[in-house]
Amino acid sequence: MKAPVSWIREYVDLPDGVGTDELTHRLTMLGLKLESLVTPADAITGPLVVGRVLTVEKEPQKNGKVISWCTVDVGDANGTGEAQGIVCGAHNFVEGDLVVVVLPGAVLPGGFEISARKTYGHVSAGMICSARELGLGEDHDGIIVLPADPNSTVEPGDDARGVLGMDDPVVEFEINPDRAYALSLRGVAREAALGFDAPFHDPADRRVPAADDRGYPVVVDDPAGAPVFVARSVTGFDASTPTPGWMARRLEQCGMRPISLGVDITNYVMLELGHPIHGYDRAKLQGPIRVRRAAEGEKLTTLDGVRRKLSAEDLLITDDSGPIGIAGVMGGETTELSDTTTDIVIEAAHFDPVTIFRAARRHKVPSEASRRFERGVDPELPAYAADRVAQLLVELGGGTVDEGVTVVGEAPARRTVSTDVALPSRITGMDITADTTVDHLRAVGCEVSVEGERLSAVVPPWRPDISQPFDLVEEVARIVGYDRVPSVLPEAPAGRGLTESQRLRRRVGRVLAGAGYSEVISYPFVGDADWAALMLPEGDERRRALRIENPLSSEEPQLTTTLLPGLLRALARNVGRANADVALFEASLVFQPSGDEKAPILGVDRRPTAEEWAAIEKAVPHQPLHLAVALTGDVERSGWWGEGRAAGWADAIGAVRDVAESLGVEIDVEPATLAPWHPGRCARIRVGETVLGHAGELHPRVCRALGVPERSAAAEIDLDTLLEHASAPAAPSISSYPVAKEDVALVVDRAVSSAAVEAALREGAGELLESIHLFDVFTGAQVGEGRKSLAFNLRFRAADRTLKEGEAGAARDAAVARAAEVTGAVQRA
Fold this sequence. Notes:
Blueprint: E1 2-4, H1 5-11, H2 20-29, E2 33-38, E3 48-60, E4 66-73, E5 84-88, E6 98-102, E7 107-108, E8 112-113, E9 117-119, E10 122-124, E11 127-128, E12 145-146, H3 160-163, E13 170-174, H4 185-196, E14 218-220, E15 228-235, H5 245-253, H6 261-273, E16 278-281, E17 289-293, E18 299-301, E19 307-309, E20 315-319, E21 322-326, E22 330-331, E23 344-350, H7 353-363, H8 368-373, H9 382-397, E24 400-401, E25 406-409, E26 416-420, H10 423-428, H11 434-443, E27 447-451, E28 454-458, H12 469-480, H13 500-514, E29 518-519, E30 525-526, H14 528-533, E31 546-547, E32 558-559, H15 564-576, E33 582-589, H16 610-619, E34 625-632, E35 634-636, E36 645-646, H17 649-662, E37 668-671, E38 677-687, E39 690-698, H18 700-706, E40 713-718, H19 719-724, E41 740-749, H20 754-765, E42 769-778, E43 787-796, H21 807-823, E44 826-827
Parallel strand pairs: 14-17, 29-33
Antiparallel strand pairs: 1-13, 2-13, 3-4, 3-6, 4-5, 6-11, 6-12, 7-8, 9-10, 15-23, 15-24, 15-25, 16-23, 17-20, 18-19, 20-21, 21-22, 26-28, 27-28, 30-32, 31-32, 33-34, 34-40, 35-36, 37-38, 38-39, 39-40, 41-43, 41-44, 42-43
Helix pairs in contact: 1-4, 5-6, 6-9, 11-12, 13-17, 20-21
């Protein structure tokens, strides 16, 4: 909501010395968050003056354009007093008009410097300005012509900033959805009066005539959709009357484009009071105005020129010809105000917020009116808003207000909220007395009565957001000041801290961060396109995902069963931003439905029964904690020290090994085939007989589909299962006795995994084996077709003695014999 400070000050007597900065700070503290503060004059440097057009010569050009060669009196502003020669492309002014001129040396918004330059055969010394060029609006088809006012003292050469109101600061506030009253100058000024305890002059404080049966006929078939409908009529209106400069300027300051006097008045009153108004050309109406729901398939051409197919849920304004507007959203073309309108019917109604919200979203036509109606406007305001519009139509456009006043329906009774008078003090921790509570609630418009320790507040009609005791607490607290809420740290009870599970999870994160991985958090939403990109076949268990009833995106309507889609999207995003070497990890929940997830839909008027609660819990899917890593680029960079090393499938497996080792868990790795990994470069990871997950190099087609570099690697495991097998960390036992090293090279079939050979060697070596390490893999003619050579380094050590000669060799031979027995290995000479 944009609000000129001068307009705010019309309705509230702010204390002397209160500047714009202090005003915006206090309003922000009350809940109207400052978005921007703009003074248009600050965006322009140099001479910006009033000029009077002396001559205008139209000159056609070869390109078909017609320019105006003008001489303009700018007084002494140019230093000579002589008329200024200016070329102008607009034609909406004549000799004698007062215009706005920017002279050489000035700089307009956007850094546009003005200088004397030769164009179209003339030296143009300045520019005659439009509103857009000065940053005052979007109108650039014509220059600004100042209204001819016989009482005006404006002369050529005067500074134009004050004349245009450019020295008036405009504040833009972010308005929360529950505070629709602040989408008006009335509401903003009321908050300013509240913040400074200053007198407030309500622009809606006016006497309105009583309803009678002489007004324009209105029939409301749906009182739930339109509880209140007020109609007033003005006849003899002169539609050719231009909108006064002060009104047009205020509309532009608030971000609205002036259109015509009739429309501008309705928009002005909407900004002033916060209640949307609509005007109909009475000559175009056929019969009484009727408010009803649409018939399925009805159509209406709205003011934006779009032919819309209506829904049975739409609330319509109709006459005998059919629909003439979507209530609270947008009017129709057939009855719009035009330059021939003389008689106007004013509509000021209160509509159901939910109905307006749904209609605006359904037709994708958010408007200033729907923005206010859907948040909840003052239901007692229509009569006052209609009367204010009628008054301005008469004052500014002539004509007469008809005596008849149509009022259909009545505003709902005001809500009463009761609470303990000490509740604000108890909830906020501030010392708030009962008198302070009463005074502040009355200041926001409540009618307050106190009986003993109980307080009853009749809520003002413009505050539909106040519905329970804690809303009253919020009102009191924001006036007292949130900055006065005491800051008290809770005392941590002794003997508590992180749970064992939390400690283990943090250990996992530290291990991966230490290995160079960065943690990410992805949205858990996926769609069929993700499964296709991962090359998951039909029938794959991971495709059986839980579908969301109301998804954020129709392309991602499911809850993910794997962390890979989100993690690989993050990998692609980093690579796309020139971050070539990336290693990411994510530890998060996945969702594994059983197929029986059907939660009951319950109301909010009562607590669920035990049976209903059990049904809700049953509908919650299994949500195990998974861990996934993804990496691409170099894990070791090249430089003067030597060649680097690119990330590969072994690094993904290594990340899982590091995590498992930190948790004290021994894992087994064996070859596997599973999408989205590359066949032959995929490993299954087990703890005993339990499969933890898979790791390896991603399939090239998956890489292309997801936009990650080829040969990227990834791993995903069930972290919950891994944590279940975790053991408490133990300090390693260090022997003071020397180590004996033995190397063996074993030739096996290429299909035999190195893990299987390593396991056999470990089993055969016995308790003297301290560690085993695969340091070379060789294939070639020397070992035979379809064979490979695996070279292992074995370290032997005893904890209590130095090994005797031959003990290490015997252990080595036993290891080789066991490997030969289990895997068919042959020791390479």
